[in-house]
Automatic annotation (TrEMBL):
This is DNA translocase FtsK 4TM domain-containing protein. Keywords: ATP-binding, Cell cycle, Cell division, Cell membrane, Chromosome partition, DNA-binding, Membrane, Nucleotide-binding, Transmembrane, Transmembrane helix. It is found in: Cell membrane. Essential cell division protein that coordinates cell division and chromosome segregation. The N-terminus is involved in assembly of the cell-division machinery. The C-terminus functions as a DNA motor that moves dsDNA in an ATP-dependent manner towards the dif recombination site, which is located within the replication terminus region. Required for activation of the Xer recombinase, allowing activation of chromosome unlinking by recombination. The lineage of its organism: Bacteria, Bacillati, Actinomycetota, Actinomycetes, Micrococcales. Residues 1-53, 221-249, 273-335, 827-873 are annotated as: Disordered. It comes from Myceligenerans salitolerans.
Length: 873
């Protein structure tokens, strides 16, 4: 909420027109920004905006409607006499005729809706409009059936027919078109009204009716979710959470903000109340049966299966033995047991935070200090308002007509001195406004808890499984982001700045919102401490990777996985994995003749690397090449990278990586140079740590300042316990054991293996990386010797060319056998230590076996059609 301050100050706001996400004006968040904080013009600094909280407003409306329902019922149902009763009857029956009898029910329904779902203002508006259609139509039909009495014949007959509404709507239509047309017209209008109330497009009527039938009979058929409406009807169940998640059809994401954009924001007003107070339960999710879709009933499902709609572990009569780890057929995904029911974690596992403060005494003190500085230096400028975020407050300053803006910016040090904070950031101007923004840390900063972000309307607006809670912007609005739209993100910041906390929030968001069938994770944690808490969650596609060398291999696996997804897309003629998944679920994708393949939808694959620097130290070239390939192509394959580093220097975040990772999140960096590496602009060096960040989603020109969401270890534990209790992970064998696949001679060596081995031996034993030496000793031409040297460079046996000088030899003579083995495509032995360290994880992987078969998958993937359209824009 923006506050106006100062004597002659101009009012700040209304902020509805402020399309500024944080401190930046980018495409992202523009259209979706719904900040409704009101500025108040006022005389004193102590004035605050007086708009009631939306909850209270909704409650007020609800109670008013309830009272009205009671009053109308008192007269229309219970016949209370007297002048007051007569007055009520005259108004109700006069307006609606005999249909007024139903008015208390309608009022009661609307009142309950408004109070239960204050955040659904638009849906409530829709219901009211729909009811309007129904009421007008019913009144008109009643009026026609009563013989179209006119008020000129006396008001009694009108009251006993369709009231004034019936008269006004029915009479002209009947006069113009006759009853034969008027009656079907109003029947149709009533039906249309019902469709609006229930948010049912005409083409979904059969599905809806089927859904109602299923719900009444307790029948669950595969694919019924596609008919779940985009409306707000929730089907109830006897499940643990008491509600069954209503799922959207694949088309349900078209027009969905989080789906359309990488990041978007909720209203700051909303954030100022406790979002969770009006929270629905986060829902249950059924992992569908593989029935009819080729689920082969893969093993590795633990004993903790849950009966649908119950939290009681269900004992399987005959647990299946682990399958022999067959190589995974191309394009197939590891599967969970065919009829497993999977419940998403309860929202209540994530705690609620305190309500957001929109103003505090600390803010008023800063306003006084700023005003003091301007007076002291004789600058004609005034603080006209401020918007308080959780960590910083942005004070808005307007300068007088003949005052240079630079006068304020040049006062930056004096301002920092006056407010006793080194982290003053000046925005000149605030994008989209004729005002200067001065961001100053709050002396009384607030923690943004992940639970609140995930319960915000911004997060609830979509059921996309890749939407994560990012935090709050500088105006106090919740920020959520769709990882699938990033489509890759670089997270950087000095140690202790909040990177790991962000990654925790991200993974926890995924666990809260997505089933393992929807999103699979590859977690790379060379530091070995940050992500261990997630070991064993069913969303993992391979055990957490801690060895940098294995991580590099895992990235290569991701490239292969991407390629195979691409092959599938090409083979079956789809542009995006979402199209493909939708078609698979619709049964439109049939295996090619003669193939026994089980075709299954692909889950999104989220690859999280929590220290890129460690990987780049081991195999810079391979890692860079894999990242480049993944980032260039993976979007359409549903594969998304999150690269985190505390060393955002150019040797870690190379130009190639930067060019291919479009979204950036910078926590406090230790230098301006680091900020430039991450964001291509300064700013991150001025952040104040502990989750304070600049977020630059893809397509955004200016970064928005956000306070990252915080989730405690005990919350993460509760969430992981919940998911682990339900399913054991089913690992893909080929991620953890790619070495076997690599035992072939690399393509680029071709027929030159022997020559290359000799060249390597020569170079390493002589420690002399000279091309002309190779020419002489191997009796080859210049071109061939040059090629051999390039191959040696690509295997990191020699360094890059340094013109006419000999190249550096990077392998010691003692390590020659390992280097030769590497060229031959055999195990190198170089990393035996690493592999030994990772041993238990591998055994774990092998022990769980691999599964073939297809996921059935429920329709929560976004529409690929929409995605394809957007990509061509
Ligand atoms: N979003 C946040 N809200 C509140 N406090 C935070 C937040 N993020 C981080 N902190 C505080 O900062 C400390 C360090 O954060 P974190 O471990 O995430 O830093 P990091 O950047 O990952 O550091 P490293 O690179 O050393 O792992 C946390 O222990 C916590 O106290």
């Amino acid at each position: 909420m923006a506050h106006a301050v100062g004597g002659a100050a101009r009012a700040v706001g209304p902020r509805d027109q402020d399309t500024t996400p944080g401190d930046g004006e980018g495409d992202v968040g523009k259209a979706s920004r719904a900040t409704t904080a009101k500025g108040t013009s006022g005389d004193t600094a102590s004035k605050t905006g007086g708009a009631p909280e939306p909850d209270h407003r909704a409650d007020g409306v609800g109670f008013f409607l309830l009272a009205l329902a009671v009053v109308v019922a008192a007269r229309e149902w219970w016949g209370i006499d007297g002048a007051f009763g007569d007055g009520v009857h005259a108004v109700v029956a006069g307006t609606l005729g005999v249909a007024g009898v139903a008015l208390p029910v309608l009022l009661l329904w609307i009142a309950l809706r408004v109070m239960r779902h204050p955040e659904r203002a638009r849906a409530n508006g829709r219901v009211t409009i729909g009811l309007g259609f129904v009421v007008v139509s019913v009144c008109s039909l009643v009026h026609i059936s009563a013989g179209l009495p006119s008020p000129t014949d006396g008001f009694g007959p009108v009251q006993d027919a369709g009231g004034v509404i019936g008269y006004l709507f029915a009479t002209p239509v009947v006069t113009g078109l006759t009853e034969w047309f008027a009656v079907p017209l109003y029947v149709l209008a009533a039906f249309f009204g019902l469709l609006i109330v229930t948010a049912t497009p005409v083409h979904r009527i059969p599905g809806r009716l089927l859904g109602v039938y299923d719900r009444l009979t307790g029948n669950h058929r595969p694919g019924d979710t596609d008919d779940a409406g985009a409306g707000d009807a929730t089907a109830s169940s006897t499940g643990q959470s008491g509600r069954r998640r209503k799922r959207k059809g694949v088309r349900g994401y078209v027009g969905d903000e989080a789906f359309e954009k990488a990041a978007y924001l909720a209203s700051a007003d909303e954030a100022s109340g406790s979002a969770s107070g009006r929270a629905d339960k986060l829902t249950t999710q059924r992992i569908p049966t593989g029935e009819g879709k080729g689920g082969t009933g893969a093993p590795a499902i633990g004993p903790g299966l849950l009966d649908e709609g119950s939290a009681t572990p269900r004992k399987k009569s005959a647990p299946k033995p682990p399958a022999t780890p067959d190589p995974m057929p191309r394009g197939e995904q590891p599967m969970f047991d065919g009829d497993t029911v999977y419940l998403l974690p309860e929202e209540s596992l994530l705690v609620e935070g305190p309500p957001h403060k929109t103003r505090s005494a600390a803010n008023d003190r800063v306003v006084e200090s700023l005003t003091g500085v301007f007076e002291q230096f004789g600058v004609d400028a005034q603080v006209t308002g401020f918007t308080r975020g959780p960590t910083v407050t942005r004070y808005e300053v307007e300068v007088g007509p003949k005052t240079k803006v630079e006068r304020i910016t040049s006062l930056s040090n004096n301002i920092a001195y006056a407010v006793a904070s080194a982290d003053v950031r000046i925005l000149s101007p605030i994008p989209g406004k004729s005002a200067i923004g001065i961001e100053i840390p709050n002396a009384d900063r607030e923690t943004v808890v992940l639970g609140d972000v995930l319960r915000s309307s911004a997060a609830r607006r979509t059921e996309h499984p890749m939407v994560m809670g990012v935090g709050k912007d500088v105006e106090g609005g919740y920020v959520v982001a769709n990882l699938a739209k990033m489509p890759h993100i670089l997270v950087a910041g000095a140690t202790g700045a909040g990177k790991s906390s962000f990654i925790n929030s991200m993974i926890t968001s995924v666990l809260m919102r997505a089933t393992p069938e929807q999103v699979r994770l590859v977690l790379v944690d060379p530091k070995r401490v940050e992500l261990t808490i997630y070991e064993g969650i069913p969303h993992l596609i391979t055990p957490i990777i801690t060895s940098p060398k294995k991580a590099a291999e895992a990235l290569e696996w991701v490239v292969r996985e991407m390629d195979s997804r691409y092959d599938d897309l090409a083979e079956f003629g789809y542009k995006h994995i979402d199209d493909f998944n939708a078609a698979v679920r619709a049964g439109k994708v049939k295996p090619l003749p003669g193939s026994e393949r089980k075709i299954a939808p692909y889950p999104y694959l989220l690859v999280v690397v929590d220290e890129l620097a460690d990987l780049m130290m081991v195999a810079p070239r391979d890692v860079e090449a894999s990242i480049q390939r993944i980032t260039q192509l993976a979007r359409a394959a549903g594969i998304h990278l999150v690269l985190a580093t505390q060393r955002p220097s150019v040797d870690v975040v190379t130009g190639l990586i930067k060019a291919n990772v479009p979204s950036r999140l910078a926590f406090a960096t230790s230098s301006l140079a680091d900020s430039r590496v991450v964001l291509d602009q300064p700013g991150a060096e001025k952040l104040i740590g502990q989750g304070d960040a600049l977020f630059l989603p893809m397509g955004s020109a200016k970064p928005m300042r956000v306070q990252g969401a915080w989730v405690t270890e005990s919350e993460v534990e509760a969430v992981t316990e919940h998911v682990k209790a339900q399913l054991k992970p089913v690992y893909r064998e080929d991620v953890a054991a790619p070495a076997a696949a690599k035992k072939q001679i690399d393509e680029d060596i071709g027929d030159d293996l022997d020559l290359l081995l000799q060249a390597a031996e020569l170079v390493v034993t002589t420690q002399f990386g000279s091309t002309s030496m190779l020419q002489r000793k191997l009796r080859v031409g210049f071109a061939k010797a040059g090629r051999l040297m390039d191959l040696l460079e690509s295997r990191e046996i020699v360094g890059p060319s340094e013109g006419s000088k000999a190249r550096d030899v990077l392998v010691a003579a003692d390590d020659l056998p390992a280097a030769l083995a590497l060229i031959r495509g055999e195990s190198t032995g170089l990393y035996d230590q690493d592999e030994a360290d990772d041993g238990p994880g591998d055994e774990d992987a092998a022990g769980t076996g691999s599964g073939g078969g297809g996921t059935d998958g429920e329709g929560r993937y976004p529409s690929g059609v929409a995605m394809a359209e957007r990509e061509t824009r």
